[in-house]
Every structure is written in C-alpha cells, then in structure tokens.
Amino acid sequence: MVVKNVKGSDLLKAIENGVSKYPSLDGRFPIISNIKFTFDSDKPPMERVLLDSVYIDNLPIDLNKYYKVVTKYFQAKGNDGYDSLVDSEYLIYPEADIYIEKIPIEFFSIFVI
User: What is the number of other CB atoms lying within 10 angstroms of the CB of residue 30?
Assistant: First the structure.
C-alpha cells in the first residue's frame, strides 16, 4: 500500500477508469471509502461518472484540490488503467517501513483500492 497526493481531477479520472469496463469483472472496479458517486453504465467509458454526484467526505469533489489517497502500489504505478495516479506525489512509498495500521487516521479520508 502507498499514500499519494492526488489532484481532484486525477482522482475523478481514476474513478472513471474504475467504472469504465463495467459490467465486466476485470478487477478495476473501485473499492472505496469516503467517496460517493453515481455513474451511468450506458454512457461511453471515461464519460460515465456524473460529476455533480461525486462527494468526498460529504463535500463535492474539488477538481483543483489535492486529496490523500491510499491505494495499492500496483495501481499507483498505472496498472489496470489507473494512469491518472502515476504522476501524483508519493507521501508514503512502498519501500517505507510503515505498516497500514501505523498510518495516521487523516490519511484515510480517501481510501481507494
């Protein structure tokens, strides 16, 4: 697991990627915490998430704000189509000797797997 500082616009792209193959069971569908959103699976991939429906910590997503995101290193490197996470700053690297239970609670405001 890693922690990255992700711009809202890139986080939205990651969410779009997560629902882009629905209803396929290819493993990219996001398992999240503290994010609410609605998507329309009839729309084209990467245009499915309804922007006005995206809330983080019960506040509308701010596309210019940076959010702390906990995710798998595999996805942080852009695998499974999560290329919008690649250029985000690492706050906790995969090589860090920090276990998930030692991360301060504020890092869990966004939890994307």
Answer: 17
